[in-house]
Amino acid sequence: MVRKIKNKRKKTTNNITESEIKFKKVLNNKIKKGKIKECLLKETGECQGKIISAHSIQNNRYLNKISKKGKVIIIKIENNEVKFLEEGRKRFSVFTGFCQKHDKEIFQPIEDIDYISSDEQKYLYVFRSLAREFHTKKEILNIYSKQIEENPNLFLLKNIKKNHLKDLESIKKEFELIYNELSIKKYESLIIKEYILEKEYLVVTNGAFIPRTNSKNEYIFDSYTDESINNGNLDPVIFLNVFPLKNKTYILLSFFKKYEKILNPLILDIEKNKKREISSLIIKHCEVIAFNPDYIQNKFTTKERNEILKNFSKNLNGILTEEINSKINLFVD
């Protein structure tokens, strides 16, 4: 949900500059110091048990399905390059944002019961994506705070922190709203579009983001709406979940009802070509994505894999989404 800013940059491997590489190394060290282990629902006073390593994508149900010998393929930076790398499924998509009690009680309807497209289950998928985003933003704020403690004269960083606090307050309200509706089993705030592909594609992802362009790089919003988003007056966040199940692939695309009108052009594009448009959203916005090792190796040519990495590196580095080549189809027969 952070606005992406366009920069001129000297090109290196997979479009990462030397300065970005140095920044990533520094940032990784800061991230380790900024890690937070606390339940996002601690204000309820009902927490019990230790803080657990929760998966934003279900481990036993979906990561297990796409894994090979316990491994999945993810995209990350290693030795200054964006690469496809193996990662143990038990480590992927983990965040420390819930206590044992809340994680078990809240997500039981999707952990212990097969997906049946119920309103409750759909809301829980959105809530888990939102929880991970909320927790990540709290950790980023913690990083900023520690940097300011070390460098109290960094006024630019203080301004960034101020803007981040505003963003965090917005997502906190959304988190509390969805949690309340789950608690009373009254599902009113979200529109959840369910799209079904009639085949299992061995890729999983989830994310929360504001889309800017479609797969043709045409702007979704008019200039007035775009400016309102930039000023923090509108927050048309999309929640995206993709998972294979029982010879089908399910796509849940969700957003708050109050933003239905301004997001309608995107929805119309998706309904014309689901694979192309959802692939575009994943490549442009989702950082939590995993593939089956054989799927990514056998279904894509070397050129296509390199193109995925090239465009994903732009995603990671915050390049404006209209610069990202979105013609890649991630759902290959």
How would you briefly describe this protein structure?
With 333 residues, this protein is of the alpha+beta class.
Structure explained in plain terms:
With 333 residues, the protein is an alpha+beta fold. It has ten helices and nine strands. The strands form two sheets. Strands 3-2-9-6-7-8-5 form a seven-stranded antiparallel beta sheet, with helices on both faces. Strands 1-4 form a two-stranded antiparallel ribbon. A hairpin with a 2-residue loop joins strand 7 and strand 8. The longest helix is centred in the middle third of the chain and has 32 residues. The N terminus is likely disordered.
Structural class: alpha+beta
Q: Summarize model confidence as the mean pLDDT.
A: 86
| Overall tally of domains | 1
Distance between the termini: 32 Å
Describe the largest sheet. Answer: 7 strands, antiparallel
The gyration radius over C-alpha positions equals 19 Å
Helix segment count? 10
Shape: globular
Q: What's the total number of strands?
A: 9
Work out the helicity level. Answer: 40-55%
> Which residues form runs of ≥5 with pLDDT under 50?
1-15
| Fraction in beta strands | 15-25%
Task: Note the main attributes of this structure.
333 residues, alpha+beta, 7-stranded antiparallel sheet
Layout of helices and strands:
Elements: H1 18-34, E1 51-55, H2 59-66, E2 71-78, E3 81-88, E4 94-99, H3 100-111, H4 119-150, H5 155-184, E5 190-197, E6 203-209, H6 223-230, E7 238-245, E8 248-256, H7 260-272, H8 274-285, E9 288-291, H9 293-298, H10 302-316
